[in-house]
């Protein structure tokens, strides 16, 4: 009789807690939770679409129970402004799962840190030092090098296959740019040679990332139901081993940079050099430096490739937009040189294409969850301390109340009305807003715009033979970031002289 009594006690405690919450707080409406599991059995795999559907039934602010954890999802501009601006300080903490707590040394980085003195310090380092306009400009040759490497790789692929009219796997090329760019910016190293062969340190870096994702993903269900955690114990040995591998690789690269700096007498612009030379000024621990470097790797790789792949899919589905962007590029750049970032100011339509891609397909559609550090009211409802708050930026960017024809890929909308996308206009929030806005937003915008510009200037893009644009799969993979469920395949047709398809390699 012991097990039934234990189960009955658990159910009673949960129901009593729920009743207490409902009596003490006026919580937002939402689907009825079950004992113990809450709404976990209701939630569809692509969460932001599921929450957007529920918002149609329950309203723009809803309560969802992830097991015994209360999560609040807001889905319109007014409520997003309350969360990210008016009550930003009370909602600026970060929910950390057991996995993210281990990876971040319990918030010793930037992404997973709670709001407080440590967060303010490392945020200042990122804003004033790592992502300053001066440093981004100094590192521009790396971005342009990697984008021209992408063009050369696609050209080699499509000309080798041209006789058969076969398509290229777009994601492969985009992923290479994103990976090589961010590792060069963060670690000052290109782990892949000109033949595409990765060195030992690159292999180790990728293994560390994939192992981390694997062992972290094994804990998902138990994160939300504390009573189940005995069945899904934290794999202490695996986390420790992977963390040690990460630290060894990071320290080896940091030591290489320290020796090079001592030999040359000067520091380079890469993030690792910057952090090491600023360590004393900002009192940065080694854990914090390593955490910040890996924040750059994890936040800057998938998101860029995701954004450009979705935008290219939309451009293939909308040949009118593709042609208009190419006409602008041909008029401004011509056919005798390649685009550089200094051309952006003369390419307003290209910039609007990038912005429209980020509107329709934000790479992190629910943002990372904010955690309430105090009781607060949003939209007239109580948000209890300890609750997690998500802003459904995907739903907000498709809200017909604030966007005309929201499902249409139409860059012209940004000529009709100027809309900021770096946290000042709450209709468009691909990088968040407030205290936790992404400090690398401008870097991401520059790289996405550059990649799209080169892809459109160098090639005309069509669907694979036998595939109609309207039949392309535009569904998303489940997850924190939203890759296309079906990787984009497309036919790339060169449109410039062959000498303009060579990589312009630089080493800085």
Automatic annotation (TrEMBL):
Protein name as catalogued: Uncharacterized protein
Family: Belongs to the cytochrome P450 family.
Compartment(s) where it occurs, according to its Swiss-Prot or TrEMBL record: Membrane
Positions contributing to heme binding: 438
Pfam families registered for this protein in UniProt: p450 (PF00067)
Domain of life, per lineage: Eukaryota
SUPFAM superfamilies given in the database record: Cytochrome P450
Cellular component aspect of the GO annotation: membrane
Naturally occurring in which organism (per UniProt): Acer yangbiense
């Amino acid at each position: 009789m012991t097990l039934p009594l234990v189960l009955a006690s658990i159910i009673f405690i949960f129901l009593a807690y729920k009743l207490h919450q409902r009596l003490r707080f006026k919580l937002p409406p939402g689907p009825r939770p079950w004992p113990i599991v809450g709404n976990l059995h209701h939630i569809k795999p692509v969460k932001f679409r599921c929450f957007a559907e529920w918002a149609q039934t329950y309203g723009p602010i809803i309560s969802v129970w992830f097991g015994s954890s209360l999560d609040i999802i807001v889905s319109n501009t007014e409520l997003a402004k309350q969360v990210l601006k008016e009550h930003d300080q009370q909602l600026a903490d970060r929910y950390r799962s057991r996995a993210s707590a281990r990876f971040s040394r319990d918030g010793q980085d930037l992404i997973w840190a709670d709001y407080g003195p440590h967060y303010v310090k490392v945020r200042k380092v990122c804003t004033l030092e790592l992502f300053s306009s001066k440093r981004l400009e100094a590192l521009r040759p790396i971005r342009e090098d990697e984008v021209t490497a992408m063009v050369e790789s696609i050209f080699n692929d499509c000309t080798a296959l041209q006789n058969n009219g076969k398509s290229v796997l777009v994601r492969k090329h985009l992923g290479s740019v994103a990976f090589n760019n961010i590792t060069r910016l963060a670690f000052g190293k290109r782990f892949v040679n000109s033949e595409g062969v990765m060195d030992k340190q690159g292999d180790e870096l990728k293994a560390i990332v994939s192992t981390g994702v694997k062992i972290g993903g094994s804990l998902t269900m138990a994160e939300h139901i504390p009573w189940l955690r005995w069945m899904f114990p934290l794999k202490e040995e695996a986390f420790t081993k992977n963390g040690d591998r990460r630290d060894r690789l990071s320290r080896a690269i940091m030591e290489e940079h320290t020796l090079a700096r001592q030999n040359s007498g000067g520091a380079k612009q890469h993030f690792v050099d910057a952090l090491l030379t600023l360590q004393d000024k900002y009192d940065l621990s080694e854990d914090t430096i390593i955490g910040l470097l890996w924040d750059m790797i994890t936040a800057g790789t998938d998101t860029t490739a995701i954004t450009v792949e979705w935008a290219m899919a939309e451009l293939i589905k909308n040949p009118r937009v593709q042609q208009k962007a190419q006409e602008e590029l041909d008029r401004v750049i011509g056919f005798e040189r390649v685009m550089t970032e200094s051309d952006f100011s003369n390419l307003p339509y290209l910039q609007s294409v990038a912005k429209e891609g980020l509107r329709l397909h934000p790479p992190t559609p629910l943002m990372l969850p904010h955690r309430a550090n105090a009781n607060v009211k949003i939209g007239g409802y109580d948000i209890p301390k300890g609750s997690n708050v998500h802003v459904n930026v995907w739903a907000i960017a498709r809200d017909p109340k604030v966007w005309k024809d929201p499902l249409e890929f139409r860059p012209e909308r940004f000529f009709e009305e100027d809309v900021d996308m770096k946290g000042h206009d709450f209709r468009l929030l691909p990088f968040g807003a407030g205290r936790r806005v992404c400090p690398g937003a401008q870097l991401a915008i520059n790289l996405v715009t550059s990649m799209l510009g080169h892809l459109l200037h160098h090639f005309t893009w069509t669907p694979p033979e036998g595939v109609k644009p309207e039949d392309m799969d535009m569904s998303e993979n489940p997850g924190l970031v939203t890759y296309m469920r079906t990787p984009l395949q497309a036919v790339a047709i060169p449109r410039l002289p062959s000498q303009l398809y060579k990589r312009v390699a630089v080493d800085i």
